[in-house]
Amino acid sequence: xxxxxxxxxxxxxxxxxxxxxxxxxxKARATAAPPQHASAPAGAEAPAAASGAAPGAAGAIEVDEAxxxxxxxxxxxxPVVVALWAQYSPxxxxxxxxxxxxxxxxxxxxxxxxxxxxxxxxxAQALAIQAVPTxxxxxxxxxxxxxxxxxxxxxxxxxxxxxxxxxxxxxxxGTADGAPSAPASEPPLPPLHQEAFDALERGDLxxxxxxxxxxxxxxxxxxxxxxxxxxxxxxxxxxxxDQAEADNARELAAQTPxxxxxxxxxxxxxxxxxHVEDAFARLVxxxxxxxxxxxxxxxxxxxxxxxxxxxxxxxxxxxxxxxARALF
Length: 328
Known about the structure:
A five-stranded mixed beta sheet has the order 1-3-2-4-5, with helices on both faces. The chain folds into three domains: 24-169, Glutaredoxin (3-Layer(aba) Sandwich); 191-238, no CATH class; 243-327, Alpha Horseshoe (Serine Threonine Protein Phosphatase 5, Tetratricopeptide repeat), CATH 1.25.40. The longest helix is centred in the middle third of the chain and has 17 residues, at 153-169. The protein has 328 residues and is α/β, with parallel strands linked by helices. α7 (205-218) runs antiparallel to α8 and α8 (223-238) packs across α12 (293-309). A hairpin with a 2-residue loop joins β4 and β5. It has 13 helices and five strands. The protein is globular and about 55 Å long.
C-alpha cells in the first residue's frame, strides 16, 4: 500500500526484504556527469528509456558510475534487478551468473544489471552493503533490498513476482525492449485490505488504521495487515514534524539519552528516512540501559519498526539478536 502524496514505490509485502536507502547524493553526483552508454553484450537490444543499455533477457547492464544514471532512468520503465558482486567472492560471481537466466525467464518484464562493488564502491557505500552477494532492485529510481547471500530459485521467483506486483501498483508496466507489458492478473484484495487501500488513496490515515486494525482482530495471523498497519503508524507519527522540530528532537535525545519519548521520536525519524540501523541501535541501546514500563514501550516500538522494514531483512535479524542480548 502506498501513502497518498508519497513519491516512493510501495513497499514489498512482508515475505520479501523491504526498506529503502537514500541514494539522492549518489544520484546527484552521477547525473552531473555527461551521460554515457552502459556496456552491453553484442547484439543486445537497447530499451527506449535507456539508450545503449542492454538489460533483461539479452544480457546484463554493467553498472558503474557512468552507467548508473541510465539504470535509474530505466527503472522508471521496468524494474531492474541488480546483483552486487566482487572478484574476491566466488559465490557472488555464481549468484551473478545464475540470476541472469532467472530474470530472462520473465520475458523482459524485469531488467538485469550487475555491479562490481570493487569497481564502483560508491554504490556499495550508498546502499550500506555489508557483504556480497547482495541482490537489490531499483524501481522508479529507488532501491529495494531483495536478498543477501545465495537464494533458492523458488525464493527468487517469489521475490521477483512480488516486485512486479509492486511495480504495477506504481505504474511501472514496461518491458526491457520498450514495449508495454500486459498487466498480471491477481486476485482482489480482501475487503478490509481494499478498504484500507482506498482510505490511503484518499489520504484518510485514520480510516486505514481502523480497517487494518479490524483485519488483525479478525485474523491475528494476517501478516500483510500487520506490516501495513505498522507503516501507517509510522507515517502518522512523523508526517507532521518539520525540520526544526526534527532537529530539536535530535538535540533533546542527545542530551537526555534515558528519556524515552525523545528516543522514540528520533528512532521514528531515522526509520522513516531509511536509516533503519540507526533507529534499531538507538532503541536497543535504550532497552539495555533501562527497566520497567519504559523499557517495554521501547521494545514494542522496536518490534513495530521491524514490521515496517520487513522480518526477513538482514538488518532486522541482526537487531533481533542485539535485542535478545539486551533483554537477557
